[in-house]
Amino acid sequence: MSVNIKVLNLSFQYQAEPILKGINLEVEQGDILGIIGPNGSGKSTLLKNINALLKPMEGKVMLEGKDLLKMNRQEIARSMAVVPQDTSPGFNFTAYEIVMMGRVPHLDRFQKEGEKDRQIVREAMGLTSSWSFKDRPITELSGGERQRVILARALAQEPQIILLDEPTAFLDISYQTEIFDLVKKLNQERNLTVIAVLHDLNLASQYCHHLILLKEGKIYRLGAPREVITASNIKEVYGTRVIVGRHPLSDTPYVSLLPGINEKNEEKKSRRVHVIGGGGSASPLLKLLYSLGHQVSVGVINAGDTDWETARELGVPCVEERPFSSLSKEKHQENLKMIEEAELIIMANVPFGRGNLKNLEAALHALEREIPLLVYNGVDISSRDYTGGKAVELYNQLKDKGAREIYEEEELMEVLN
């Protein structure tokens, strides 16, 4: 694919305050690129630099190989259209008149629009389902209707690139999906390049091919949604803990908030807790510890295991072994190292076979290092032993050496508090 836009070492500041710092970026034709990040990270400022509404202090933006600042506004508008965040009208034009304004870049001075222009406007309003209210004043339209009109105006410019600055910020959920379904359709049918500033991480994940995550004016991560929207990235950039799962239909990352968790209350009560799990036994425990703000790790877990999936969703450090493989000596040593760095070890109701027996040995290692060990025994160990009695034998050694058995979540909360 050819490159539509290239941003080269771009920096920008308002007065003496740096806003963007050394941004480098290539946007290929037909891409849907989302720009995400917390307030004040430079999202809208970057979009305005890409559209030459702002002039960078350093670096430049290239549009189809041309320096954007050496192009006039009419030339830029033929290639690039903008859908702003605020669509509040300043004048009482009809919807049709607003969309016809999109043809201005293609008209000479004092030239009137012709049949070709009217046909393009009809097509744009048809695509955006806004033709039915073409004669209504823009001031009488709902937020969603106005946004469709502004998008139609952008399409009437016949651009190669559309820039969207939080286009769904003031819309309810039905209008949000409607606007982005339309943008996605235009991208697929017309190979339209889309660059969108978005606050909603789930919308960004669902509709964008690639994402830029900005932090303090710099690109923190750039890549596909599953590479960018991770629990660890969000914690680092937004300063909040979330669970990142998978959307049930699209399999894209899906962000769920954890109310009441922030960096301040983390500092008050955070402990380093290592969990011994497997077979899905540790997933509820991992989510609980994570939601309470503790520094959690887990191991050894086979890749593909439910506990492994949960660790990935939470961004929790995990010692992982190959799928359906016995725990190797190497992974066992990694697990011991994590255990030695922890303040507390918790072993879930793990079913034990010969392949994961080393996890019981790891629990013994914790006690030998005088690290407190809690063992869940809500399901009796004898019914979880598939080793011919070896797991029960090791479990009894744990109890003899001081492991504390717990049966309910309330008991765990007492220990943690």
UniProtKB/TrEMBL annotation:
Q: What would be an example GO MF term here?
A: ATP hydrolysis activity
Residues covered by the ABC transporter domain: 5-241
> What PROSITE patterns does this protein's entry cite?
ABC_TRANSPORTER_1, ABC_TRANSPORTER_2
Q: Read off the Gene3D superfamilies from this record.
A: P-loop containing nucleotide triphosphate hydrolases
Q: Which InterPro entries match?
A: AAA+_ATPase (IPR003593), ABC_transporter-like_ATP-bd (IPR003439), ABC_transporter-like_CS (IPR017871), P-loop_NTPase (IPR027417)
The keyword Lyase belongs to this UniProt entry's keyword annotation: no
Tree of life domain: Bacteria
**What keywords appear on the UniProt entry?**
ATP-binding, Nucleotide-binding, Translocase, Transport
UniProt cross-references to PANTHER family, sorted A to Z: HEMIN IMPORT ATP-BINDING PROTEIN HMUV
Q: What is this protein called?
A: Heme ABC transporter ATP-binding protein
